[in-house]
């Protein structure tokens, strides 16, 4: 079943289909550039999705054949005229930090997350993609992080770019603002798979089919373990992982998985590859 939960003209268009949330950045006339309203809408959707145990996957994409052109220049010009407030909370820093909080929430979503890059991903758009578990890219699209060429540091996206591309490679890409083809982005580790513009939907369906073939509670436990591994020393991580393993083994899901393997059938949680909803 497909359920649309946002109006077509909203800056973020949400469609739920077969347990999958499709979040579409929906400012095509502005190449889906990020505004405070769009960031707030995506932040709120991440909170809703995180609290919904029925969501199997979260897909982030852009309307109009472009993923995201980064920050909205009009917003930048407005912020440049805003002085720091008397209470020492700089409105520019606060706005920038809200975007970082969104990236944290996106990276922390408990279910598998996928970004689909068509056209271009620039600046903050690269950060959104880097915060996802899997990044798919059309082979005629490009990535760039042009902040330093504009006199800015890539402040909030930097940790997520480094997590994907590594410190040395990620740092150089951000220092130089180089434009990357899909092949270059794949080589750099910023993208996981590429396909032709006509084939990107088929690639997404295949990835979602793999997600839906696996047990959702086990996937969520896996994400918790990996997140722990990035924060804690290995002994504590392995202790927590052992508890996750024991809980999974006692849950009944493993018995179903083994029975399905023995019976040569799909387990009860498996679903067919979904039909992708149309763009707004």
Mean pLDDT: 91
CATH homology superfamily name of the largest domain: 2-enoyl-CoA Hydratase, Chain A, domain 1
- The helix-strand sequence is EEEHEHHEEHEEHHEHEHHHH
> Tally of extended strands?
10
Query: Residue ranges: pLDDT <50 for 5 or more in a row?
Result: none
The largest sheet has its strands arranged as 1-2-3-4-5-7-10
Beta-strand level of the residues, as a percent range? Answer: 15-25%
CATH class assignment of the largest domain = Alpha Beta
Radius of gyration: 20 Å
Structural class determined from secondary elements: alpha/beta
Q: Examine the secondary-structure arrangement and name the CATH architecture of the largest domain.
A: Alpha-Beta Complex
Shape label? globular
User: What is the count of DSSP helices, taking H or I runs of 4+ residues?
Assistant: 11
Largest sheet: 7 strands, mixed
Task: Domain count, please report it.
Answer: 2
CATH topology of the largest domain: 2-enoyl-CoA Hydratase, Chain A, domain 1
Q: What do you see in this structure?
A:
With 280 residues, the chain is α/β, with parallel strands linked by helices. It folds into two domains: 2-212, 2-enoyl-CoA Hydratase, Chain A, domain 1; 216-263, no CATH class. It has eleven helices and ten strands. The protein has helices at residues 36-50, 73-80, 91-107, 124-130, 158-165, 167-176, 182-188, 200-212, 216-231, 234-250, 253-263; strands at residues 2-4, 12-17, 20-25, 57-62, 113-117, 120-122, 134-138, 142-144, 180-181, 193-195. The strands form two sheets. A seven-stranded mixed β-sheet has the order 1-2-3-4-5-7-10, with helices on both faces. A three-stranded mixed β-sheet has the order 6-8-9. A hairpin with a 7-residue loop joins β1 and β2 (12-17).
């Amino acid at each position: 079943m497909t359920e649309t939960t946002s109006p077509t003209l909203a800056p973020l268009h949400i469609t739920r289909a077969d347990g999958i949330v499709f979040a579409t950045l929906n400012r095509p006339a502005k190449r889906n550039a990020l505004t405070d309203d769009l960031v707030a809408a995506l932040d709120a959707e991440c909170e809703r999705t995180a609290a919904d145990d029925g969501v199997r996957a979260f897909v982030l994409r852009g309307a109009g054949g472009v993923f995201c052109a980064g920050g909205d220049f009009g917003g930048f010009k407005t912020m440049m005229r805003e002085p720091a407030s008397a209470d020492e909370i700089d409105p520019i820093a606060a706005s920038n930090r809200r975007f970082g909080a969104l990236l944290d929430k996106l990276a922390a979503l408990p279910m598998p997350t996928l970004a689909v890059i068509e056209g271009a991903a620039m600046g903050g758009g690269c950060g959104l993609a880097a915060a996802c578990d899997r990044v798919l890219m059309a082979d005629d699209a490009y990535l760039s992080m042009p902040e330093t060429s504009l006199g800015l540091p890539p402040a909030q996206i930097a940790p997520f770019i480094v997590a994907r591309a590594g410190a040395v490679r990620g740092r150089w890409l951000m220092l130089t603002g180089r434009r990357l083809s899909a092949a270059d982005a794949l080589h750099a580790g910023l993208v996981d798979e590429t396909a032709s513009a006509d084939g990107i939907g088929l690639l997404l369906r295949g990835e979602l089919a793999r997600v839906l073939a696996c047990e959702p509670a086990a996937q969520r436990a896996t994400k918790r373990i990996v997140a722990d591994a990035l924060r804690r020393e290995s002994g504590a991580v392995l202790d927590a992982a052992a508890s996750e393993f024991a809980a999974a083994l006692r849950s009944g899901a493993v018995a179903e998985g083994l029975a399905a393997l023995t019976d040569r059938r799909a387990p009860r949680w498996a679903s067919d590859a979904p039909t992708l909803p149309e763009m707004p």
